[in-house]
Amino acid sequence: MLRCRLILLSLAALLAMAVLPVRAEITVLQVADYSASRASLGRALRYGASLAIAEANRQGGLHGEKFKLVALDDRYEVAETLRLLKEGIDKHDPVAVVNLLGTANTGAVLQSGLLDAAQIALIGPYTGADHLRVPLNPRVFHVRASYAEEVDRIVQHFANSGIRRIGIVHEADPFGESIHTAFVASLARRGLQVAGRGVSPRGSVDVSGAVAAVMAADPQGVIIGTAGSPTGVAIKAIHAAGLRVPAVGLSVNDATQIVKTAGVEAARGFGMVAVMPDPNACALPICQELRALHAALGDATETLSPNTMEGFIAARLMLRAAASVRGALTRQKLRDALDAMGPTDLSGFLIRYSPTHHNGSSYSDIGVIGAGGHMMY
Predict the structure, then answer these.
(1) How far apart are CA 224 and CA 206, in angstroms?
(2) Which N-terminal residues, if any, form the signal peptide (predicted)?
(3) Residue-wise over 224-250: b if at least 16 C-beta within 10 A, else e?
(4) Domains in the chain: how many in total?
(5) Do both 141 and 288 map to the same domain?
(6) Is the distance from CB of 287 to CB of 277 less than 8 angstroms?
(7) pLDDT tens digits, 207-262
(8) How many Å apart are CA 130 and CA 145, to the nearest integer?
(9) Domain containing 75 — which CATH number?
(10) Under 8 Å CB-to-CB from 240, ≥6 apart: which residues?
């Protein structure tokens, strides 16, 4: 009788195990540019996210399940972003998406309805465009400050320096237009003057016409509203043309790439907004943690930057939310966990979400490239 009971209990246990979902890994999806005009940005995001996930796995993952980052290269092409996002969701069954790259790319994804159809959260899209934040999208959780906040920080910096006439170079796409809109509004609030507007093709290094248009207006300061490789080319062209006025760019750039493209002499003095702490220069615990992980688990050929930090923080947010979920982790439970986060301290970097507030941070700083080619804050 006892033997029969044991057999029945064993069979019941086996049947229970058979109906439990088996998942070898918890997949996280990233779609970004790793090989075209924004490659330095995309690779930094990927590296930061990979370090956060590697550390989580070293600590045992989530209830014994390990995380896996799947990164797909869209080459900054909107059609490829849409195709790869859908393909990645269907093929890899991710629990969340981190760090789409680009205003037009992110905008197309939101318009496509892919996130709603998959019931999946997008954490930390690499864009500060205000029109992608209002009205609030319940599946999108922004990490960085908005472009309007960045531009306003630059304009205020110029105004404090006595500069009244400011020019702008930007790209001909939704990203560039959002920068220009914020620029005009910020100048108007302070009674400052627009002194030249140069527009370059999207993602192109052909910036000569844009630089010439701004130079013709003889500005006292210039905002460089480009991203990735076009920025270094624009700075080099401005220097070669003899325009010796303060120039400040947005966070969507990489100082190392700018110095490499423009040269140390041309890049010296160029200012840049940071919407993430620079792990090379900050004393916050999260910067110390990223540096330690880079040394212990990372790739010696990679360099740390605020963009690395952005990928790191987006992944850390995903991991924090996942750890708070009760029961089996699902896309909807993860989204709901992010929504309920409230004020959250990520080792000194503060984030706040609620059902009516998905703009996680307003952090910003301005640094300048020094004589040695390094950012100084």
Answers:
(1) 14
(2) 1-24
(3) bbbbbbbbbbbbbbbbeeebebbbbbb
(4) 2
(5) yes
(6) yes
(7) 999 999 999 999 999 999 999 999 999 999 999 999 999 999 999 999 999 999 99
(8) 10
(9) 3.40.50.2300
(10) 266
Residue 141 half-sphere exposure, CB side, CA atoms within 13 Å?
Answer: 29
Write down how long the chain is. 377
Domain boundary among 274, 291, 309: 274
Residue 255 sits in the same domain as residue 109: no
- Which of 337, 377, 345 is closest to 361 using CA atoms? 345
Question: Any residues with CB less than 8 A from the CB of 140 and at least 6 apart, and which?
Answer: 110, 115, 121, 122, 125, 132, 358
Decide if 219 is inside a domain: yes
pTM for this structure?
A: 0.89
Interatomic CA distance for residues 275 and 126, integer angstroms: 11
The 3-state DSSP class for residue 226 equals: coil
> Which tokens is 124 given?
């930390």
List beta partners, residue 101: 126
CA angle, residues 143, 329, 73, in degrees to nearest 5: 50
Domain boundary among the residues 252, 274, 296 is at 274
Domain range enclosing 173: 147-274
- What does each C-alpha distance from 59 to 22, 55, 56, 62, 281 come to in angstroms? 21, 6, 5, 9, 27
Q: Say if residue 156 is in the same domain as residue 269.
A: yes
Q: Is the dihedral of CA 72, 76, 78, 80 positive or negative?
A: negative
pLDDT tens column, 160-200:
999 999 999 999 999 999 999 999 999 999 999 999 999 99
Spatial CA neighbour of 148 closest among 170, 194, 181, 193: 181
